[in-house]
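User: Sequence in, structure out. Go.
Assistant: Echoing your sequence, followed by the structure tokens.
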Amino acid sequence: MSNGLLTKFFRRRKKQHPVCHQPPGVAAAGTSGKVAIVGNPNVGKSVVFGRLTGRYAAISNYPGTTVHVTRGHANIDGMTHEVVDTPGMYSFLPITEEERVARNILLSEKPESVLHVVDAKNLSRMLPLTLQLIEAGLPVVLQLNMMDEAETAGIAIDTKALKDELGIPVVATAAVSGRGIGELKKTLAESCPASARLAENSDYGETLEESLRKISLLLNGEYQLSRRSLGLLLLQNDSEVAEQVKPPRPAMPRG
């Protein structure tokens, strides 16, 4: 998503959807969930993974690839969560094998929380991926990491305003020192429903919006992604998504 579209999103925003909240104790103790950590390379994802899980981690290749995926477990508010540190990705439209693996994990493993870790010093460059994840209908938590470096650089971020604007939880951290990790765990312990209403808040212009409406009418199956997100990916010639939404072939008559 270009900076122009990012600006248009905020300019044409109509109404926000609620930030997820759940009273403490609603989930039964001992239940399990999954947290997928996503984000650009070099934003501190591995440090965040270590802070959540401790030292132990299982590193293996994603099936059918040479891409490494790190997995571990975290005790968050009395519940055991599997934590997956996905390969670096810049966009929800995969170009590299690493990005393809990261997206496949989000779609096939259905995490309860998608933790998007960003470098707070470069927030405007990383927010387009945040918007893509929200628009896909995924349960996103935005982690503004490296806040200590941002503050040293004279950068101030109004996390409450950002949370209100995006309609998702936003947590500021400096994972190297452990700052904000407690708040992050508390946020992950809450129930974060998929953000499915971004379509009401964004407008890509009459021509593109009409194309998205037409595509949406042709998508009759059950999908992991929102129809709007699928339409955007199809318009960008995403062959994997095209294969997923292709209607099944009719069975050939016997005899």
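User: And one key feature?
Assistant: Confidence is low (pLDDT under 50) at residues 1-31.
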